[in-house]
Amino acid sequence: MGSSPRGGTILMLPKHYVAAAGIVLNENEDVLLIRRADNMHWEPPGGVVELEDGLEAAVVREVKEESGVDAEVIRLTGVYKTVGRRGFHVVSLVFLCRAVGGVLRPSEETVAAGFFSADDALNKIERERIRIRLEDALADRKTPFVRSFLTPEAK
């Protein structure tokens, strides 16, 4: 804690950023995945919530930017805090969404985008923490999951 010019104590807040991801289903209940250009991993579209974004608007924007798909939010399915190495701390909001239009295509951030059966989508996702988010969204639970992941040796 520090002190303010008026002599009070200033609370030092942790350095997190907020991300939003969409588990987007089409009319066949297939799941939208994108293949990221930076690491070649398959995952649901998503990204950082910009300062001017609303939370639901952020996920709709990210889905469109990364896949070309227009989506509408159905509900929040999970809140995930990841504490990682080298100051990487993120709170991710995951929303179940419905595809409502657009043209499926990759973007500058992605090398591929497609709809896959739930089983195929789960098998394509290599990172366990991302796979858990998809499993949670497909669980049809009425209330959102809340999970924290701590990377070993995180500070």
From TrEMBL:
GO molecular function: hydrolase activity
Membrane-crossing residue ranges in chain numbering: none
Pfam families the UniProt entry points to: NUDIX
Domain of life: Bacteria
Organism of derivation: Paludifilum halophilum
InterPro entries recorded: NUDIX_hydrolase-like_dom_sf (IPR015797), NUDIX_hydrolase_dom (IPR000086)
Ranges where the Nudix hydrolase domain occurs: 15-138
UniProt keywords, alphabetically: Hydrolase
PROSITE patterns: NUDIX
Cofactor requirement: Mg(2+)
Name of the protein: Nudix hydrolase domain-containing protein
